[in-house]
Amino acid sequence: MDHSERSITNVGGQTQRPAWMDAFLAELRGSIRAIVEPTHSLCMELQCRLIGLENKFALTDRALTEEMNIMERELFAVREQLSQLSKSVHTVPIQLQTLIRRVDNIEEHLAHVRDVLGQDLDEPSRDSE
From the CB of residue 43, how many other CB atoms can be counted at a distance below 10 Å? Predict the structure, then answer.
């Protein structure tokens, strides 16, 4: 067997590779780097965008919950006014109709907000518990 045909030689106690193998390994490293670097950059960008979306969702959820709570308090106040007016002997029918329409509008809006939040209209809000 001819020792010059061997791909790896041992010269002076150190293993040496042929030049073609070094060139192949350098090309392989370059190919891997060309694939991994853009993939890594894409993953980092996606992570940043996901974090941004999570933050926006949390803020939107908080804002909708707060709006729902405000409307709920307003609804209770209007119902209390309506209750007091209905007890009064001198109740004006137009005032009652106006308050009833206002309560209906608030309940419709509250139902829409709860639909967005995924809550049932009869379900108590988180702040009320």
Answer: 10
Rg (CA), the chain: 36
d(C-alpha 129, C-alpha 118), whole Å: 17
Element counts in the chain: helices (H) and strands (E): 2, 2
Q: 15 has which bridge partners?
A: 10
Confidence tier at 50 by pLDDT (50, 70, 90) = very high
- pTM of the full structure: 0.43
Domain residue spans of the chain: 15-117
Q: Which long-range contacts (CB under 8 A, 24 or more apart) does 55-62 make?
A: 61/117
* HSE, side-chain direction, 13 A CA sphere, residue 125: 19
